[in-house]
Amino acid sequence: YTGGLGFGQKWMMGWMHDTLKFFQEDPINRKYHHDTITFSQIYAFSENFMLPFSHDEVVHGKASLINKMPGDEWQKFANLRLMYSYMYTHPGTKLLFMGGEFAQTSEWNFKGSLDWQLLEYPLHSGMSNLIKKLNSLYRKKEQLFELQFEQEGFEWVDIGDRDNSIISYFRKSKSESGSLLVVHNFTPVLHEKYTLGLPEKGNWKEIFNSDHEDFGGAGNLNKGKYKTKEEESQGKPHSLEIILPPLACIILEQK
């Protein structure tokens, strides 16, 4: 920027604090904190933001990211996979401090190496696979990066399902390649027939699911193409029925 100091982006500290605060809540209580996870969209496009999970959050007794997550081992890993998926699909560039990509259990210690041996365990190697997949999608899908600093690249589908702790939104690009539909389920409840209201008809195909077995999940997937129905839902003229896994994010692409 003319007259500036040469910095092109700013850490979105409010997003980071709100996200960690929300995910540290027991899922049964998250419906009472729904505004915490949606608040960032009020100011997300006021500056060029980077979403940081930095070294500051995994030192000095704050615990590692995986140990900030509530619940038993399964819920901790599912929550962390969901939180990373939320970061990658939220507008803004990404910053993840080393060790987080495989769910290091100990805090960062500058005197020692990372706990690479954890990759021998399926849940940790699954987390690494998840980050690889998210990085690949972030590079290949223009909907996730082309308008990441512009309001035009984001549109809510449903912000109001606080009772189920579910949010959904579109990510868009400049081209006519179609939108990505992102859905997050912040509770450990499996929804076998979850209905979304959409503004237009179309076919959708799942391209990412954080509950995939490759990532350490249970494998509750949406297979094949899903076609919208001409049935009104959530005030929209069309609807789409999907499987929504517990503590998971899914991304569907318009075909």
Average pLDDT figure: 94
Kindly name the structural category.
alpha+beta
Strand content range: 15-25%
Sheet with most strands: 6 strands, antiparallel
CATH class of the largest domain: Alpha Beta
Number of domains: 2
- How much helicity do the residues have? 10-25%
Number of strands: 11
Question: What fold name goes in the CATH topology slot of the largest domain?
Answer: TIM Barrel
Q: Which blocks of ≥5 consecutive residues have pLDDT under 50?
A: none
Question: SSE order in H/E notation?
Answer: EHHEHHEHEEEEEEEE
Shape designation: globular
Number of continuous helical runs:
5
End-to-end Cα distance, whole Å, is: 38 Å
Strand order of the largest sheet: 4-5-6-11-8-9
Radius of gyration: 18 Å
CATH superfamily annotation of the largest domain: Glycosidases
Instruction: Give the CATH architecture of the largest domain.
Output: Alpha-Beta Barrel
Overview of the molecule:
- The protein is of the alpha+beta class and 255 residues long.
- The chain folds into 2 domains: 10-142, TIM Barrel (Alpha-Beta Barrel); 144-254, Immunoglobulin-like (Sandwich).
- The protein is built from 5 helices and 11 strands.
- The strands form 3 sheets. The chain has a 6-stranded antiparallel sheet with strand order 4-5-6-11-8-9. Strands 1-2-3 form a 3-stranded parallel sheet. It has a two-stranded antiparallel ribbon with strand order 7-10.
- It is globular.
- It starts with 9 loop residues before the first strand and ends with a strand.
